[in-house]
Each structure stands twice: as structure tokens, then as C-alpha cells.
Design brief:
This protein is of the alpha+beta class. It contains 19 helices and ten strands. The strands form three sheets. Strands 1, 2, 3, 4 and 6 form a five-stranded antiparallel β-sheet that branches. A three-stranded mixed β-sheet has the order 5-9-8. The chain is globular.
């Protein structure tokens, strides 16, 4: 452990620090097991009961860890193949209900950020949080007679994340040695996006932006920001009642699941292809589900803006694939910086990969399933001859989460919709970047 990490842990409350240290070994085991399944497709045989017990322990211990490693646990809770379905249902508690921090500690954060005590700033305030995640926890309160959700950042969590990212920078450089990937650039990209999540003023701006953008998506909702009670480490929004993603999947009708899937899909790709912006944390804990299939979108801390030229190149490549234009597809991959040495690239395999990725858009009545997601492991990872021949410009890092993140969510919904119609509409729409573009 580095000295800087020790200082960060020393600044945390005693009980929280002890649980954090105890959790590190369990988190490492989770990561190793997940990577073994995802990369090799193999794992040691385990008793389902033992795996479920391990998942319960992980919810308790990993939920206390917070920060970057807890985010990895959240991914493992919904990506097919990471654990058994029963264990994943238990681990899903990490998406919104982790070990909370003592209210007395967070009350000091409110006082510093909002210039007054909880009692002074809010009419009512529930000391027990109704959600706790990797960077902060959420309490129910009341402002001017309106029910609100108050997200409060854990003290010193930004320093914890910085320490995590310094370790990841070294790991990324070693892991990408001998490949076309720039490990340092990718680690820097991830670090910038993760640390942006600690700025709730920026998140409030993102939330207002997506509330405007998603007005065009029927059934998509975004809670209103209460600016008078928000600051850099406190974000207050209108309180929204809804069902968890897991409860919705278990009880909703197929028609409701199909509608929810179409809303999630359209909201994601319309934002990217039309407005050049992406909410880069697509996991089930960031959605509230409603009767009828409507979806409330939560958590806009990790948002990536893209250069319009990059999005236009992607759209042209997408059209080439839909029209079976293999030359256009190859030219697009080179233009986007994904293939540094075209003469050493296995284009036949990549075309096979694209046929897999575009199957929902070309196959009538396609239904997403967990099995569809697990097919990608071989094509994209352990059976991929281009594994060390591909490049990944930093702008693509979080977009690649869509391959498993959004598809995994649609697979859990087992949703079907006119995916091809939605896809073609957004890639053929004019590109209209939102303000504050970041060039690449």
C-alpha cells in the first residue's frame, strides 16, 4: 500500500477504514474470477450454494470498499457469465444498496457545502439513506413541501479514487505492453471520467442537459435538479418513486419489458449519434422502472462528449455495415484509428464480429438474451486474432462498455423492438452536437 493511500484511509472513519482494508482481498478474488470467466470462458467448478454465499459476503464487504473496485463489482452483478444468475441477483444489491456511511459524517458535508445544518436547510431529512453507492449515498428529504433525493458525497472519496487511478495507470501500461493500445492514454481517460463524478455541480449541469435531450424520447424521464440545495458535493433532485430494475424484470409483462428496452436503446444512441454525448455508466442501478415500461434515468456523473467528426465517421461506418459495403467498413475502421496496421489485420474476422454486433439491426424481430451477450466473449476476446492488432483511441474506452453494458441490460429484459429502424434513424439523422464540446 502506498503512503498516499494510507493517508486517505487514515482520514476515513475507523469502522469504514477497517472494512475497506478487509474488503480488498475479497475484491481481488471477485476480479480474478470474473476475468477468468470473461477472458477464457472457463472457471473452476463451484457449488452454486457456495457461490451464492460468496456473493452475500461480497455485498457486505465490497459494499464497504466504495470507489473504483466497487464499480467493478457492480459490473459483475449484471454482465452475463460473471457469476451464476442466483449469485448475481444477490450481488445486484451493489447497484444501489451498499454499506452506508454514518449520517453524522455526512451531515458535516452538508453543513460545509450548503452553508447550514441539515435541520436548517431541509424541512425534513431521513438520516437513514435509501441508496448508497461507490461515491456517495442518497437520503430522502423535503424542500418547500417537495419530496427530494439528496445525494451526499463520501468525505475524502476523491482522494481514494485518485489513489486507485495511480495504481491503475501502472497496471494499464503493463497490460497493454506489446499491443497497439496506449495504456497510459486509456488510464488517463478513465481517470478523468471517474474523477468528474466527484463534481456534483458538473453532474447537475449534465442532468439538466439530459432532461432536455431526452424530451424527444417518449417514456424517458429525468428528475429535476433543485439548484438551491446543490453544490460540489451535494446534489438535490426531485424524488421519484419507481421500481428497481430487478423487480421490474421479475414482474413486468413482456410488452412492458419491450417498451423499456426500446426507451433505453433509443435514449442511448440518439444521445450519441445526434448530440455527440454519452452517459457512460449504463448499469441497472441507474434506472427506475415504471408500470407501462417508462424509465427514469439517474446518475449523470460520468458523461463523455465527442468530437462531431468522430461521430460522423462512426455513422458512415455503421451505414457501410448495414449496406454490406466491406470496403467502406474497412476504410471507416482505419479512419477512426481502430486499426493502426491494416495489412496485418484479420478483416474477415472483424467482418464476422460486425455481423454479430449488427444482428439486432438486421434480423427481424430480434430478441436480446443473456446468451447473445456471452457469444461476444469468444468473438471479441479470447478467440479474436485481432486482439493485439487493434487500437483503442481514448474516446472509445467507455463506448466499449456498451458492448456488454447496454446489451446485458437488454438481455435481462429479453426485449424485442424494431431495433433496425431505431438504429438507422439515428445514424442517418443530422449530427447536432450539444454545447461544451470536447475535441479529441
Amino acid at each position: 500500500m502506498t503512503g498516499s493511500t494510507s493517508r486517505v484511509l487514515d482520514a476515513l472513519p475507523q469502522g469504514f477504514r477497517q472494512r475497506t482494508l478487509k474488503s480488498a482481498k475479497l475484491a481481488t478474488k471477485l476480479g480474478a474470477g470474473y476475468l477468468r470467466r470473461a477472458v477464457t470462458g472457463k472457471s473452476r467448478a463451484t457449488d452454486p450454494a457456495d457461490e451464492e454465499a460468496a456473493a452475500r459476503t461480497l455485498v457486505e464487504e465490497l459494499g464497504a470498499l466504495k470507489g473504483l473496485v466497487m464499480k467493478m463489482g457492480q459490473v459483475a452483478s449484471y454482465v452475463p457469465g460473471a457469476m451464476s444468475p442466483a449469485a448475481q441477483r444477490i450481488l445486484a444489491d451493489l447497484q444501489a444498496n451498499t454499506t452506508p456511511m454514518a449520517f453524522e459524517v455526512l451531515a458535516d458535508v452538508v453543513r460545509r457545502e450548503l452553508g447550514g445544518s441539515v435541520e436548517e436547510r431541509f424541512e425534513t431529512f431521513a438520516a437513514e439513506p435509501f441508496a448508497a453507492a461507490s461515491i456517495g449515498q442518497v437520503h430522502r428529504a423535503e424542500v418547500d413541501g417537495q419530496a427530494v433525493a439528496v445525494k451526499i458525497q463520501y468525505p475524502n472519496i476523491e482522494d481514494v479514487l485518485r489513489a486507485d487511478m495511480r495504481k491503475l495507470d501502472v497496471i494499464a501500461r503493463v497490460a497493454t505492453f506489446g499491443t497497439a493500445f496506449d495504456g497510459k492514454a486509456l488510464a488517463t481517460e478513465l481517470g478523468e471520467r471517474v474523477l468528474e463524478e466527484c463534481d456534483y455541480v458538473a453532474e447537475a449541469d449534465n442532468q439538466r442537459l439530459f432532461a432536455s435531450l431526452l424530451e424527444s424520447v417518449d417514456g424517458a424521464r429525468v428528475p429535476a435538479v433543485v439548484g438551491s440545495h446543490s453544490a460540489r458535493r451535494v446534489l438535490t433532485s426531485a424524488f421519484v418513486e419507481g421500481r428497481s430494475f430487478q423487480d421490474f424484470c421479475a414482474s413486468a409483462s413482456q410488452a412492458e419489458r419491450d417498451r423499456a428496452g426500446a426507451i433505453l436503446f433509443r435514449a442511448c444512441f440518439e444521445s450519441i449519434f445526434v448530440h455527440c454525448v454519452f452517459n457512460a455508466d449504463p448499469h441497472p442501478g441507474n434506472y427506475l422502472m415504471h408500470d407501462g415500461g417508462d424509465v427514469t434515468f439517474l446518475d449523470f456523473g460520468c458523461v463523455r462528449r465527442f468530437d462531431a467528426a468522430m461521430i460522423d465517421a462512426w455513422k458512415a461506418t455503421a451505414i457501410a455495415v448495414l449496406e454490406h459495403d466491406q470496403k467502406g467498413f474497412r476504410d471507416g475502421f482505419v479512419q477512426m484509428g481502430l486499426v493502426p496496421q491494416p495489412d496485418r489485420f484479420d478483416w474477415a474476422h472483424q467482418w464476422k464480429v460486425m455481423q454479430y454486433i449488427y444482428r439486432p439491426y438486421t434480423e427481424p424481430n430480434f430478441r436480446f438474451t443473456p446468451q447473445y451477450v456471452t457469444e461476444s466473449y469468444g468473438l471479441l476476446i479470447y478467440d479474436n486474432p485481432n486482439r493485439n492488432r487493434s487500437a483503442m483511441p481514448p474516446a472509445w474506452l467507455l463506448l466499449n462498455r456498451l458492448q456488454w453494458g447496454l446489451n446485458a441490460i437488454l438481455g435481462h429484459l429479453e426485449a424485442t423492438a424494431p431495433w433496425g429502424d431505431i438504429w438507422r434513424a439515428v445514424i442517418e439523422a443530422p449530427t447536432r452536437p450539444v454545447g461544451g464540446q470536447r475535441g479529441d
